[in-house]
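Re: that backbone. Tokens:
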């Protein structure tokens, strides 16, 4: 059985703080065992949480997402074992990443998903359309309380 891999977009990291949905448990429920966060996504999230653009609940959500990623990527082997269904979280630095501006994050995610044959967790409708056109499976928030897959 192939180990399912999912790439996480910036807005997906806001889900735990905004909706109280444990994206790691939900991804494990859907059968994903490797969760990949591109360095560019983490940088974008850090910029959002530190910048003046987000306020109140959104800023808290950005901080929660950032903290969760660091909790799981900095985790010891024992802490990794406590993750849902043995999921692993890693931060990826892909060749060529960071050479272009922030507006190219979506294109980088599409290219990475194609290269790794991975699904993408995102709520961004434009990105979901691009992914669908490229034949890439997406995972998205459904009903404000669970994640769902689409092919």
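Recovered sequence:
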């Amino acid at each position: 059985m192939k180990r399912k891999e999912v790439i996480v977009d910036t807005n997906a990291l806001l889900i735990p703080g905004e909706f109280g949905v444990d994206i790691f448990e939900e991804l494990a429920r859907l059968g994903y065992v490797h969760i990949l966060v591109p360095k560019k996504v983490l940088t974008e999230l850090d910029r959002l949480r530190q910048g003046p653009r987000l306020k109140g609940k959104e800023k808290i959500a950005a901080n929660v997402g950032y903290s969760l990623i660091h909790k799981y990527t900095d985790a010891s082997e024992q802490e990794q074992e406590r993750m849902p269904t043995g999921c692993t979280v890693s931060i990826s630095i892909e060749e060529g990443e960071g050479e272009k501006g922030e507006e190219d994050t979506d294109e980088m995610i599409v290219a990475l998903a194609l290269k790794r044959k991975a699904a993408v967790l995102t709520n961004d409708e434009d990105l979901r359309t691009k992914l669908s056109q490229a034949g890439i499976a997406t995972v998205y928030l459904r009903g404000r309380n669970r994640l769902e897959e689409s092919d």
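The chain has one domain: 4-150. The chain has seven helices and six strands.
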